[in-house]
Fold:
Amino acid sequence: MNTAFSTFIVLFAISGVLSILLALYAGFQKTRFSGMRWFVLMSAATALYTFGSSFELASTSLREIKFWISIEYLGLPFISALNLIVVLHYIGREKMLASRKTVLLLILPAITTLLMLTNDRHGLVYQGIQLREGTPWPLADITMGLWYVVNGSYTLGCGLVGMWLLARHMRQTLNVYRKQTATMFVGLLLPIGASLVYVLNLTPFHIDPVPAVMSLTNILYCWAILSAGMLTSTSVIRENILDSMRDGVIVIDPAGRIADYNKAASQLFPFLNAELIGENAAASFPRERLHGRDADMSFLEDDDRQIEWMTDLGTHYYRIRSTPVYRRGGAFTGRTVVVLDVTENVLLHRKLERLATHDGLTQIYNRAYFVERSEDLVEETRRAGRPLCFALLDIDRFKSINDGFGHDVGDLVIRHVVHACKIYLGDRDVFGRYGGEEFALCLPDRTIEEAYGLLECVRRELASGPLMTESGPIGVTASFGLVEARPGEPLGALTKMADQAMYRAKRSGRNAVRIAGEDDGTRHATRISSPAAGFGEEPGGSGAGSAVGAAGA
Structure:
């Protein structure tokens, strides 16, 4: 027998043996891979085809050749369709394969087999089969029929679709599973390439090389099964779990490059795409979207960190948990960065915190939080030897406003007073609502003259004109009590003295500022005209005169 013939026969037989072994191994394998039975059928179909090809080459007559060609066609038409089904299961698209769709994929191969078995009657697959002349061994010389072209086109189409699906999946899968995916890709590529070689008549005596190439494909499958667990741990199982997680997950390799990410991560960080796989993780994040303190990207390595991520719709808050991953031997293999969207929790916490510390109507500090902040400032300024003043103010005749115009107008007046105060308060000044129409101010780092000048500016702002409401213009004034803290004096004592000074202002005619421990006489007028007030007061300004003039208001 010719050496080339012998080589092809041996290769075809080896391919058939490997296909049978693959089918047996897969059939007894305990696995959750949903496409296992289709893999077994594909291996069995490959075995029929390769063994049939081996016996076809070894045949000594045309009759034997035709018989073994018929045996080949019991498996050949189904291989590519079954391979496509296995690919769809492997990439997690088995839901596309409802029973009806699976049957449709296999109908055309079944028709091809039936037509081949009855080819002598119609010649649709092969118009003619005869012995080739000038060969050292009996070989079939065939004339292709119409259905041969149809089946070849369908086989090629299934192979190309399978390759496209695997190539697309390979870009998105974890690195550890790319070996499996690449093996399946090559398993489809090699037969297609061998078919092209056959069509171009590049083999000795125009022998079909596909069965021989199938032996190489089967060897690759055996290697992938043994080294990468191709049939026992598919990427789809792990990735389906990963993609089903509500939290974002970014996998970073030891070199700091993005190895993979799940769907939730791409929703939290829309810049993530398949093209960034293999790119440096820190360099891939758009820093302009991060809050200044987060732009150093250290959160990718911090155990637990909250970051602010800015979008066109507002700021989102993410909790980042970065966990290093080690092999059993202790070698560092990368990191998993878990991203949790805590925006709702952060905003709710801030809302609750504000409700606990701020007055709902005026949005300034409520009494409890004002007292807490003021006590801290009293102690801080005492230790530093700096001045601090404390003041109370009460809206004049507020009960009459409420009774005469209603609580809605009363609320409007309260907000008006708060606005007038805020105009002159500094960043360190603490302002709070002390009661219904009573407010308190803690003024650190202000001398009594500076604090007095500030309160006078507020008083004159209120008295400068009526507040326009739907019920008509309403005159709004307030009475103020001011005290300067002495070393060791607690906030409670300051509050009491400021309260007494405020009621002296009420008794003296309202719309006035009174200082604790001072009379209503000339010393008060001196305070008003003092240049130390620093608020643009002119000597002889509106001070006591305006307070007295408003007594009848």
Q: What stands out?
A: Residues 511 and 546 are 8 Å apart (CA to CA). The two ends are 128 Å apart (CA to CA). The chain has a mean pLDDT of 82. The first strand starts at residue 126 and ends at 131.
